[in-house]
From TrEMBL:
Cofactor(s) the record lists: Mg(2+); Co(2+)
InterPro entries: HAD-like_hydrolase, HAD-like_sf, HAD-SF_hydro_IA, HAD_sf, PGP-like_dom2, PSP_YsaA
Known EC number: 3.1.3.3
Enzyme class: hydrolase
Gene3D superfamilies from the UniProt entry: HAD superfamily/HAD-like (3.40.50.1000), Putative phosphatase, domain 2 (1.10.150.240)
PANTHER family: N-ACYLNEURAMINATE-9-PHOSPHATASE (PTHR46470)
GO terms assigned for molecular function: L-phosphoserine phosphatase activity
Organism of provenance: Ureibacillus acetophenoni
Pfam family, one: Hydrolase
Protein name per Swiss-Prot or TrEMBL: Phosphoserine phosphatase
Pathway(s) annotated for this protein in UniProt: Amino-acid biosynthesis; L-serine biosynthesis; L-serine from 3-phospho-D-glycerate: step 3/3
A Gene Ontology BP annotation from the UniProt entry: L-serine biosynthetic process
Reactions it catalyzes: O-phospho-L-serine + H2O = L-serine + phosphate; O-phospho-D-serine + H2O = D-serine + phosphate
Length: 262
């Protein structure tokens, strides 16, 4: 296998996004518990449920699925991006953020819209303060930089994905190309965004390898263009026999060891 280009996913591959969101929920819900008799974990679960319900009710939902933006990114994003769909999200999101927290409180018997608004703002700030990166991310990128062309391929709104890169400023410098689904118009697993990556990087499918944590986006999408892939399965999830996976590893370090054998 003659690989000269490595394509990395961002969220939960290089950045530990789930932990960043979890920390923001923990801090915000713990603060709420100092003001009301509410159990922080119960509030988190309630807000997550209300956020999903609201998010799926908006006219922009199908677009967020196409681009790959989840409800919890909506809880801290601004979506100040140029497409009409993002502009519509920009209008909706401030109220969505307030309502998710207000409705989450209300479901627990606390009718306090002012606190809901305060918690929504606090969550945004807590998320910005918690940019977790996996402990081996930089060491692995250091090893690969200069030996391979590196491409970052991430689903999401450009405004939000660029903000993540701004608060972890070391990451962008490793990459020859940064491609965000919201700029392209479709997200992983659509084959067209992988074809665009190959065109941008000047490679054939056999010359690249996709590295990501998500079977349904990173691995499925790369398989659609016959590109080799590596599933980073840190959580010991079950394999899906219908999604062709070339390699499976449990960490970036294990991936680095694999690359050296290819």
């Amino acid at each position: 296998m003659s690989i000269n280009t490595i394509i990395f996913d961002l969220d939960d591959t290089l950045l530990w996004d789930k932990q960043s969101i979890q920390t923001a929920f923990d801090k915000t819900c713990e603060y709420a518990a100092t003001l009301h008799n509410v159990e922080p974990k119960q509030l988190e679960e309630s807000v997550r449920a209300e956020a999903r319900k609201l998010y799926e009710s908006y006219e922009t939902y199908d677009y967020t699925v196409l681009i790959g933006i989840n409800p919890f990114e909506g809880l801290w994003g601004t979506f100040d991006d140029p497409t009409p769909q993002f502009q519509k999200m920009k209008e909706i999101i401030p109220q969505y953020q307030k309502d998710a927290w207000t409705n989450g409180l209300k479901a627990l018997g606390i009718d306090d819209p002012a606190l809901g608004a305060e918690l929504s703002e606090r969550f945004v700030e807590e998320r910005k303060k918690a940019p977790y990166v996996y402990e081996d991310t930089y060491a692995v990128l250091d090893e690969l930089k200069g030996r391979y062309q590196l491409v970052l391929l991430t689903n999401g709104a450009p405004s939000l994905q660029n903000l993540k890169l701004e608060i972890t400023p070391e990451i962008r410098a490793y990459f020859d190309h940064v491609i965000i689904s919201g700029d392209f118009g479709k997200g992983k697993p659509d084959a067209s965004i992988f074809e665009y990556v190959m065109q941008k990087a000047g490679i054939s499918a056999e010359e690249g390898i996709m590295v990501g944590d998500n079977l349904n986006t990173d691995i499925l999408g790369s398989s659609r263009v016959s590109m080799p892939n590596v599933w980073i399965n840190r959580e010991n999830k079950a394999q899906n026999p219908e999604i062709p996976t070339t390699y499976e590893v449990t960490s970036l370090t294990e991936f680095l060891n694999l690359v050296k054998t290819l």
